[in-house]
Specification:
Catalytic activity: phosphoenolpyruvate + GTP + H(+) = enolpyruvoyl-2-diphospho-5'-guanosine + diphosphate
Keywords: GTP-binding, Nucleotide-binding, Nucleotidyltransferase, Transferase
CATH architecture: Alpha-Beta Complex
Order of helices and strands: EHHEHEHEHEEHEHHHH
Number of domains: 1
Organism: Streptomyces sp. gb1(2016)
Function: Guanylyltransferase that catalyzes the activation of phosphoenolpyruvate (PEP) as enolpyruvoyl-2-diphospho-5'-guanosine, via the condensation of PEP with GTP. It is involved in the biosynthesis of coenzyme F420, a hydride carrier cofactor.
Strand order of the largest sheet: 3-2-1-4-6-5-7
CATH superfamily: Spore Coat Polysaccharide Biosynthesis Protein SpsA, Chain A
Protein name: Phosphoenolpyruvate guanylyltransferase
Strand content: 5-15%
Structural class: alpha/beta
Largest sheet: 7 strands, mixed
Number of strands: 7
Shape: globular
Mean pLDDT: 92
């Protein structure tokens, strides 16, 4: 397993990208994962996934800042402690609305910012792989990364002045393609694709190597992930 020490909370404050990470209240997050790890561990893992995602994003030189959209005060405080800016999910109208709200929050402060949204369940995320995705995406108005199964989406970007137009959930890869977004074709960015919804997904993330927050819970998680 990959474990990391303290992670810088913004290695380059002049980086071109602002990232938006939406997170459900922990009591409702990762419901499918509960079948493998149990109800007590599930919300703790949901927070750990988000902490590892945000930590990795903030240590990517291309990232200027990270905005977390959540109504969970515990999660908001924990992610703010890492260097993210937490904003309330005032639309309270689902994932896409939360992403658009986060993008507006970024651009209210910095008009014309390049914005990307990232799933909160990427515990194996590596800053160098994220940097490659962002570099590729910078050449297109909108770009996205399909998940490891090739069905969903883990990342969507919008260049300066471009509307995000997210269409997450279910078969979102097809919807993002139909909307004109360019699919990121890069090999070797598995950590950006590996979201975690099930015990099987968690086992795959552990095999890639997870960040320090998820690793701290790995002892009870590893046997459950095999189920």
């Amino acid at each position: 397993m990959r474990t990391e020490g303290e992670i810088a909370t913004n290695t380059d404050p002049t980086g071109p990208w602002s990232l938006v990470v939406p997170l459900k209240p922990l009591a409702r997050a990762k419901s499918r994962l509960g079948r493998a790890v149990g109800g007590d561990l599930r919300p703790r893992l949901a927070l750990a996934f988000a902490q590892d995602t945000v930590s990795a994003a903030l240590s990517c030189p291309a990232v200027r800042d990270v905005v977390v959209v959540t109504d969970d005060p515990v999660a908001g405080a924990a992610l703010a402690a890492l260097g993210a800016r937490a904003v309330a999910d005032t639309p309270a109208a689902g994932l896409d609305a939360a992403m658009e709200h986060g993008a507006r929050s970024v651009r209210t402060r910095r008009g014309g910012a390049a914005v990307a949204v990232l799933n909160a369940d990427l515990p194996a995320l590596r800053p160098d792989e994220l940097a490659r995705v962002l570099e590729f995406s910078s050449a297109f108005p909108r770009a996205f990364v399909a998940d490891a199964q090739g069905i969903g989406t883990t990342f969507l970007s919008a260049g300066p002045g471009v509307e995000l137009r997210p269409a997450f959930g279910g078969a979102s890869r097809a919807r993002h393609l139909a909307s004109g977004a360019v699919e990121v074709p890069l090999a070797g960015v598995d950590s950006v694709r590996r979201d975690v919804d099930t015990g099987e997904d968690l086992g795959a993330a552990l095999a890639l190597g997870v960040g320090r927050f998820t690793a701290a819970l790995a002892a009870p998680v590893a046997p459950a992930a095999d189920r």
